[in-house]
Amino acid sequence: MSSAIDTPGFGLTTSSVLRVALIQSAVVFVVAALWQQRWGTIVDTSWLISEAERVLDGERLYVDVIDNNPPFSIWLFLPAIVLSRWAGIAPEIGVYLYTCLAVIVGLGLSALIVRRAGFSENHALLRLLPLFVALFMIFPGNAFTERDHVGTVLFLPLLAIMALRANTTRRVKPGIALIVGAGLCGSILVLVKAYYVVAYIVPALYVAWRRRNLWLLLAPENCIIGIVGVIYVALIFWLTPEFMRDLFPQVVDIYMKARDPLRVALSYAPIYLMIILLFRMVAPKAPVTPLCAVTLLASLAAVAPLIYQGKGWGYHAFAAISLAFAAVLCRTAASSGWRYNRETLGRVVLCAIVVVFASQPFLPTQKPAEAFVAAIKAASKGEPTLGVIGSDIAAAHPLDRIVGARFLSANNSDWLGALAFVLAQEAAARGEAADAARYQNQSDAYLDAKYAEFARHNYDLIVVQQDEPLWTDHVFGQARFAALLSAYHPIARDERFIVYGRNAPADQSSKAR
Length: 513
Description:
Layout: H1 10-35, H2 43-56, H3 72-75, H4 78-87, H5 91-117, H6 122-127, H7 129-137, H8 147-166, H9 176-192, H10 197-211, H11 220-239, H12 241-253, H13 261-281, H14 290-309, H15 314-333, H16 342-358, H17 370-379, E1 385-389, H18 399-402, E2 406-407, H19 415-429, H20 433-457, E3 461-465, H21 469-476, H22 479-485, E4 488-493, E5 497-502, H23 506-512
């Protein structure tokens, strides 16, 4: 029996479509590089770069430099930082290129697996390649280079191989290279955040159900993910025992309590339901192929980590939203084709509306304004040191790297002290005296360490978060911090932050006059 691939002229047509798709995808990469200037290097990535540099310079993770995430968050970007140093380029550029490479690997390996599977929609999927590239290069916005972003695009090959195994019309063996590649890539998302294991388990259960074979849960790629996970946990205890011993209890007791799952669910429900509606309406007569099914199921499962984390930040929603759009594209590819008529125009308009609404969480930027940066640079010399008072990591990052300052603190912000203080206030309001005292003691201990840090480093610049009066009033209500700040004067401010520069010595001031 001959297949479509054996049809005369098919190979030539495919080659032509591939050439056009690759050219269009290259254009998307160029547009994305320009579009990303709106955000620059995002807050979390800037801090991870600084962390990685300090670790490479000999500082100890979770001792000299503190992060509330497991070590893979730093390990993920270490190769980019090392290669940037070797190539003599800025680490921000290195991380950007590294993320572009992740997109190429994720989509490229998925394409190889889909080609091996021989799905009926393959030809249409090839035409849609530029849209898949845009989904992971342009759509992410302020989530670009986030761990969730990198992990999600590298999760696609695993979904492709699941679809291959779920396909009952054409049984194909994927081959050892594709299995290993999909397993290793798929493990990244779970290593980034263990919550995402549900996005792997749900489609895996679907594959076993569709094939009526529970042994498929032990498919080689699944075993690879399990082995990688066990090795990772062992490495945490071996290389960074301080995380499990010292930091993880604080994260559970303080950081993870500052969440609001109901608010997050209600705020993202309209966006997500619109995408699900789009999945239904974009090609109502198209079958829900295995590729559509595993991608949509992974997206639905990824909603659980979004709600459970309870923070509501855009990048927490990226996996759920981007995989839902990927499912829409797969459904479109499975359709018989769109004709140029009123119905098609309506679908295009619907797609545009949904994309606009779904992109809203990813549009806000925390990039410091040029005038704000210029004022800081004008008032500082050389390579100033920079301290921070505020719970938002955006207070000092990426500002420190933009103005050429050295960030010496072990903590990226005051999240630990500020959240403990808030929890103490809430516990006291509920009449829970023991919890209030415990959290207050943790906040006080944090401030004692912070004051010692400020006294030791004698920072040239101090960034104060001004939209958080509960914490800043508490800090500067203490005479020691008020006296410390009296040696500084404001040099720049924006809507959220004030930057203070150290006062010049009296003799220098008199000479200036």
